[in-house]
Amino acid sequence: MASNSRLKPRRQKNRMIADGTTMNHLKTFILLAALTALFGGVGYLIGGATGMAVALVFAGGMNLFSYWNADKIVLKMYRAQPVDEQHPNAVVRNYVADVRQMARDAGLPQPQVAIIPSDQPNAFATGRNPERAAVCATTGLLDMLTREEVRGVMAHELAHVKNRDTLIMTVTATIAGAIAALANFALFFGGGEDRERPGGVIGTLALMILAPMAAGLVQMAISRGREYEADRIGAEIAGDPQALASALQKIDAYAKRIHNPTAERNPASGQMFIINPLAGRGADNLFSTHPATVNRVRALAELGAKMGVRPRAAATPPVSAVPVTPRRATTGVPATPGEPRGPWG
To answer: DSSP assignment, residue 181?
Structure first.
């Protein structure tokens, strides 16, 4: 009887995770279909039926390459360092143990666990399927957040793995990028004496401007929907929506003051992170792939109320109070004696 009573909360959690995902997957499928149709349409407007066929073959090749290699590329790009429970630092050992325990609770294969040498607190997941997934936290995240908040963040990343969002976002980014490239090709192949192409030069110029904007809007809609879903499922995996909400507020505040040079050089990778790692200058805010943090925190508060979790006071400092180099002053994780440089050794 006792074992059955212990299984009931886990079964209820799994039912909560399953509820509502079907509609989100349907919306994602519709948006991906729209993005694919837009891609084919751009190819048709540039080169007719032949142009559409070439465009789709090109996109298929890009997606195939991304499917097999995107995770390796991004891990190498961010200099991710695999870690395990034998790491000399207690903070990292706790981080690895918590990820492995939550993966078991969520019914997932054990992912590769890594840390990224970056002062900016952030995290992401990658991998083409749950069997080949990797979850990564920056050294800044382990420095600045409490253990409960780190658990909440990594549960969010495990939710992305569970939903296969890493593959979805890779395909989305690839198609959106290809649409932008095709729109630029239209400058060289469009207009002129081709009377069969609608709009001539004006139509070509409109295509160059509107097609990337439409692709960006679809990409934004897909990414934002997946972030809300990962917040919800991640909070249920960890069992603590308030910890994730507090973590999001802290990461958002610090990310605005601490730059991530690798993400700045590769802005397309920014959609992978739990909070946009870009500095937010210029066009980066035009098509933000992340929902507003305040809206995510509000949704988590509502979820916490449904789960019967008592709200607690936010531990987030105001943005104006965040120091430029906060690692030593604001560490939320107890430091390991004799290792003043942090949890990465």
So the answer is: H
Question: Helix, strand or coil for residue 124?
Answer: strand
* Domain limits, the chain: 17-321
Q: Is 264 a catalytic residue?
A: no
For 124, the token pair is 């992401």
The larger pLDDT score, comparing residue 87 to residue 191, is at: 87
Residue 250 contacts residue 149 (beta carbons within 8 Å)? yes
Query: How many other C-beta atoms lie within 10 A of the C-beta of residue 157?
Result: 28
Sign of the Cα pseudo-torsion (112, 256, 240, 129, in order): negative
Selecting among 157, 227, 229, 236, the annotated active-site residue is: 157
Count CB neighbours of 50 within 10 A: 11
Q: pTM for the full model? A: 0.73
Per residue in 313-341, pLDDT tens? Answer: 555 444 443 444 444 434 343 433 333 34
In the chain, how many H helices and how many E strands?
Answer: 10, 4
